[in-house]
Amino acid sequence: MNKLIVLILAFTLALTLVGCNNEKHAFQGEIIEIDNGTMLVEPLEGYSEAKHAQRIRVEIQSMPGSPEPRVGDIIEVTYSGVMTEVSPPSPVGVERIVVIERNQNDTDIKEQNSLTASKVALNFTEEITVEKNTLDSCVIYDRDNAIRTYAGNFSFQNVSPGFSAISDVLYSLDHNMGSFSFVITWVDTGNPISVGLLNEENEAFMISLEGGTSSCNIDISGIPNGKYYVIVMHQGKYEPVVNGAISYNFSEK
After folding, report:
1. What are the Cα distances from residue 14, in Å, to 2, 7, 189?
2. What one-character DSSP code corresponds to residue 126?
């Protein structure tokens, strides 16, 4: 009888442990260091992981559709296991890592400053009306967009066919503005997209792109004065969603 009771208790304990290990956890933190395929992350205040350790080691994995992480980014880590007992600890059973806030670095600034000088100016090829209900996409904005008057960048995730992602800032453009320059990358690379400017009346001036990466300098001297969002549209030619990132700036004539 005693052996039976012990077996029952052991089985019950095993089920309890399995249940605990399957429980999902998530925390957000700032990337302090990236080295050899892992990130050293400082958990943000308010998460239990911040009480567990000041720094957590996270392997770079399970990031479909999210931009490549870099130091200074804020990420969200979802995992279904426990924290290891090593120092620094690591989450077990990582299911998803997402960059939720980008940190602009010197490379971004140099890239934006050199956009105008490096390309021959093109023109927008189409003017369309964009429905408001097609702007529902997951967009990750750079924390500095609001303080940078005529430049910015954002990442977009799971943009469905016919839907669009737009910037978080409206840019005031007038006859003094000469060009809109950008660098963009996206996947699924077989999906054509459109990039352009969307005004407050939902009128968009766009250029069509293919191939998964593009660098353009657009002449905007001919568009009406007004306030514009930067817009990226999934043309809807193929089914898979589109994920990517765009960096852009505006230059005077």
Report:
1. 18, 11, 46
2. E
